[in-house]
């Protein structure tokens, strides 16, 4: 039904991502999940298909998306295209999809606050898929409370010296470009945070533990360690003290991407459940003929389509330059991730005992779905954002 709302370019990109997902990701997703290895061969395919260019403005070798203008009249990227690609890749494997989606998150602070010189230096290499990106905010004591960041950045001459450890960083160790949030003034709390570009190989920057995760196992999740890390002062994004604002603007723009990931997982689970129900026989008939199964499938499909409507709406609102889109981004992330968890659980139930076995994709999809309720702000945090925005508006939207 949503095809009628997509432009020819959007349909082309979506169909390209769908084809890659079916032909290149589905055959290897079980292996990558089992081994927990990073999908560099898929990254190469995505780069050759120019799918990383959807993340970058045309003027920096990105894709021409109709010259979408930001508030400052500068060209920016299509949130809708990012969501479409993320959804289709996640429909096959959300862990593999994160190589692309995690880069979208990592590059967004640079798109928001980077200077022309910074963008010219870094964005073309991302557009071509030569370098992946990561966003480094989370620490052991700073997750939902971004203002509790303990990593410090002290100005010394023409450099900032970073000290601290980041935790659970998507694309960590594989990315070459990191957007790092650190405190340049601890006494000011959130207002003392600043954002920096840190390149792989920078003196004093190393990688710690690679996490062994329940789901999204094809995605690399690592510690980042900054030990007197010398970052050129020219790598400061925006101004000192703007890090928290950059973080909030980043999440407002990228949460629809997490929602699209969850949507893709849910759609993939629904696809598998319908296919299985039409094949599996019990009581002398296909279980798709049983009303109890039909009701489950109907509820799953309705939740998926409702989530899709909200995800696409939030992406369109961002692309239109609408104000106050943060709450809608949170709604999309909240609804789509809760839907992904519910749909994968019900889909596994339709599979019965087979769904619990690793030879079928359902148990993987259920494991993958859980993280979408947690990262880029837990769903409890999303409810707070939505409620506070609603109260601020006096109940009016």
Summarize the helices and strands and which ones pair or pack:
Blueprint: H1 8-25, H2 29-35, H3 40-48, H4 79-92, H5 94-113, H6 116-127, E1 133-136, E2 152-156, E3 159-170, E4 177-183, E5 193-199, E6 205-210, E7 221-232, E8 236-237, H7 243-277, E9 281-282, E10 285-286, H8 291-319, H9 326-351, H10 362-371, H11 379-392
Parallel strand pairs: 1-4
Antiparallel strand pairs: 2-3, 3-7, 4-5, 5-8, 6-7, 9-10
Helix pairs in contact: 1-4, 4-5, 4-7, 5-6, 5-7, 7-8, 7-9, 7-10, 8-9, 9-10, 9-11
Verbal overview:
By secondary structure, the protein is an alpha+beta fold. The protein has three domains: 2-131, Butyryl-Coa Dehydrogenase, subunit A, domain 1, CATH 1.10.540; 135-241, Butyryl-CoA Dehydrogenase, subunit A, domain 2; 244-392, Butyryl-CoA Dehydrogenase, subunit A, domain 3, CATH 1.20.140. It contains eleven helices and ten strands. It has a four-stranded mixed sheet. Helix 5 (94-113) runs antiparallel to helix 6 (116-127) and helix 9 packs antiparallel against helix 10. The longest helix is centred in the middle third of the chain and has 35 residues, at 243-277. The radius of gyration is 21 Å and the shape is globular. The relative contact order is 0.11. The model has no long low-confidence stretch (mean pLDDT 94).
């Amino acid at each position: 039904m949503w095809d009628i709302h997509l432009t020819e370019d959007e349909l082309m990109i979506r169909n390209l991502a769908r084809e890659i997902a079916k032909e290149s990701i589905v055959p290897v997703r079980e292996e990558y999940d089992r081994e927990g290895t990073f999908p560099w061969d898929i990254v190469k395919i995505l780069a050759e298909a120019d799918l990383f260019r959807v993340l970058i403005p045309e003027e920096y070798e990105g894709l021409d998306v109709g010259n979408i203008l930001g508030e400052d009249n500068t060209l920016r990227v299509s949130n809708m295209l990012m969501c479409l690609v993320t959804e289709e890749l996640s429909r096959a494997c959300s862990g593999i999809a994160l190589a692309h989606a995690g880069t979208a998150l990592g590059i967004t602070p640079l798109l928001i606050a980077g200077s022309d010189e910074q963008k010219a230096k870094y964005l073309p290499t991302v557009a071509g898929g030569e370098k992946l990106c990561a966003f480094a905010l989370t620490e052991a004591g700073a997750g939902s409370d971004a203002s509790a960041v303990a990593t410090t950045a002290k100005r010394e001459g023409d450099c900032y010296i970073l000290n601290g450890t980041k935790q659970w960083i998507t694309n960590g160790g594989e990315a070459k470009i990191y957007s790092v949030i650190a405190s340049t003034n601890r006494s000011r709390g959130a207002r003392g945070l600043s954002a920096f570009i840190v390149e792989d190989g920078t003196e004093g920057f190393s990688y710690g533990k690679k996490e062994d995760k329940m789901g999204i196992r094809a995605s690399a999740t690592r510690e980042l360690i900054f030990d007197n890390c010398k970052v050129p002062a020219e790598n400061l994004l925006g101004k000192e003290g703007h890090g928290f604002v950059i973080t909030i603007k980043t999440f407002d723009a990228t949460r629809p991407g997490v929602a699209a990931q969850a949507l893709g997982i849910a759609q993939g689970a629904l696809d598998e459940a319908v296919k299985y129900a039409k094949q599996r026989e019990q009581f002398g008939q296909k279980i798709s003929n049983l009303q109890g199964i039909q009701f489950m499938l109907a509820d799953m499909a309705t939740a998926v389509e409702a989530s899709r409507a909200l995800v696409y709406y939030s992406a369109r609102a961002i692309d239109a330059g609408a104000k106050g889109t943060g709450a809608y981004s949170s709604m999309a992330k909240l609804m789509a991730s809760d839907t992904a968890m519910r749909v994968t659980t019900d889909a596994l139930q339709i599979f019965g005992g087979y769904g619990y076995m690793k030879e079928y994709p359902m148990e993987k999809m259920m494991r993958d779905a859980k993280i979408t309720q947690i990262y880029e702000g837990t769903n409890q945090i999303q409810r707070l954002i939505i409620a506070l925005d609603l109260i601020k508006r006096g109940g009016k939207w």
